[in-house]
Amino acid sequence: MHRLVSLLSVTLLIASSAVCAQGNGSSDISVYKVDADGSDIRILVHRAGAFSRLGHSHVISVGQLTGMIYVHAENERSRFELEIPVHELIVDDPILRRDEGDEFSSKLSKQDIARTRSNMLGKRVLNARQYPTVKLTGTGTGGDGSQVMLGLSIEIFGRVVELRVPLVLQLDEDVLEATGDFQLSHSALGMRPFSAILGALRVADEINFKYRIRAQRIQVDD
Fold first, then answer.
1. pTM, full prediction
2. Which residues, 6+ apart, have CB-to-CB distance to 100 below 8 Å?
3. Which of 9, 40, 47, 152 could pair with 138 as two cysteines, CB 3.0-4.6 Å apart?
4. Residue 12: helix, strand or coil by DSSP?
5. Per CATH, is 7-218 categorized as 2.40.128.110?
6. Per-residue pLDDT for the chain (222 aa), expressed as one digit of tens each?
7. Residue 68 and residue 83: Cα distance in Å, rounded?
8. Dihedral over alpha carbons 8, 136, 152, 4 (to 10 degrees)
């Protein structure tokens, strides 16, 4: 893929909590709408192999996402739903590459970025023509205070991957923010990353996901 995601995917991701939450018309639940402009999901895909110095590591970011978060006072009853259109994934934004440090300091041409994007959206990786959307759903599974464990389901590339990820949850009046990071692999997602020269130049199997999801509380009719 010359990098991933996922979601990725993926990235990827958010939240539940120990606040007040939502449900079928119940006042126990608070409903939040994801703020795409205020959110930041990054997928870091790394170069590997004996000739890795000839390749590049990549930063994939989520250009658009939509979703709702339903927060209940009982953490396990909180849930969320997110959708990421894979055609809106952004490949190697230069500002984000600088943010991520030396590994991502190599200079990329427009042709390099176009090839990477083509590989990412192709059949071996995201297969965007057949699977145009990555869907993330999940519930809270426990935690103390702002430290929450999230049960996450990633629907990507025609399969569903289940995992548990940690997050830090902050609630400031009507704004919810969830932050965290985790690692996944191309193989776990059913993808075959880019490889050349008998594997001497390839994309590493491991993928790092970093996210900040921000959402605004909304009023719903009982």
1. 0.78
2. 42, 44, 59
3. 152
4. coil
5. yes
6. 433 333 333 333 333 333 333 334 455 788 999 999 999 999 999 876 664 565 688 999 999 999 999 988 777 788 999 999 999 999 999 999 999 999 899 889 999 999 999 988 998 888 999 999 999 998 876 666 567 788 889 998 888 989 888 889 888 879 999 999 998 888 877 777 666 665 565 778 888 999 999 999 998 765
7. 10
8. -10
The residue type of 185 is S
Place of tokens 């969830």: 178
Round to whole Å and give the CA distance between 129 and 147: 38
Q: SS3 for 113?
A: helix
Q: What is the C-alpha to C-alpha distance for residues 144 and 212, in angstroms, rounded to an integer?
A: 19
* Cα R_g (the chain), whole angstroms: 18
